[in-house]
Amino acid sequence: MFVVMSDSHEDRDVIQKIKTHYQNSATAIFHCGDSELSSQDPIWDGITVVRGNCDDDAAYPNFLTQKVEGKKVLITHGHLYFVGMGLDSYASFAEQENADIALFGHIHQPVAQIINGILFLNPGSVAQPRGKYQVKMYAVIEINEGHFHVSYRDLNHQPINTLQFDL
Questions:
Q1: The dihedral of CA 20, 78, 70, 163: what is its sign?
Q2: 35 near 48, Cβ under 8 Å?
Q3: Are residues 2 and 26 in contact, defined by beta-carbon separation less than 8 angstroms?
Q4: Phi, psi (5° rounding) for residue 71?
Q5: CA-based max dimension of the chain
Q6: pTM for the complete prediction?
Q7: d(Cα 14, Cα 126) in Å, to the nearest integer?
Q8: 62 in helix, strand or coil?
Q9: Using alpha carbons only, how large is the chain's radius of gyration in Å?
């Protein structure tokens, strides 16, 4: 089980709350950018984080790959792949990187879908939700026998009933 959050926009406390809740149980914790915090902040110990379009700190990478539970996870913010206009560009990049899972932020809205065998996931925003779901949220991914269970959670770590997916 691993945790994905994004777009915290200077809200360090929400990152800490999620990290504290999962740091002893998650195999990985990801932040998809736009934290607006320093890359040297100790909050990032144990969290894989990338640079978003609102992050001025050039020490953040634009993308990373990491093996988690036998799957190759690609993480980026998404603005460099124009995810606000669709996933075509990011899907091409994810395929080039041989990713099993492609995480992204930027649009502040939940997305969980399979494209060409790759799970694409946006965890929504822990600070500034947009679109249909006006809930501050993050996502938990569980892998069981090659299938993904994606559970979107509110900031009280409770599942959001309409945002539970088996893919």
A1: positive
A2: no
A3: yes
A4: -115, 145
A5: 40
A6: 0.96
A7: 7
A8: coil
A9: 14
Place of tokens 């299938």: 147
Measured in whole angstroms, how far is the alpha carbon of residue 66 from the centre of its chain?
Answer: 13
For residue range 9-54, list pLDDT tens digits in order: 999 999 999 999 999 999 999 999 999 999 999 999 999 999 999 9
| Cross-strand bridge partners of residue 138 | 153
Do residues 19 and 42 lie in contact, with contact meaning Cβ atoms separated by under 8 Å? no
Alpha-carbon distance 26 to 60, whole Å?
22
pLDDT by residue (tens digit) across 60-76?
Answer: 999 999 999 999 999 99
Q: For residue range 123-135, list pLDDT tens digits in order.
A: 999 999 999 999 9
Total residue length of the chain: 167
- H helix runs in the chain, sequence order: 12-22, 88-96
Domain map (residue ranges) of the chain: 2-166
Separation of alpha carbons 137 and 160, rounded Å: 9
Question: CA 27, 29, 30: angle at the middle one, nearest 5?
Answer: 135
- Could you give the residue ranges of the DSSP H alpha helices within 48-113? 88-96
The domain 2-166 having CATH identifier 3.60.21.10: the answer here is yes
* Cα distance between residue 84 and residue 101, in whole Å: 19
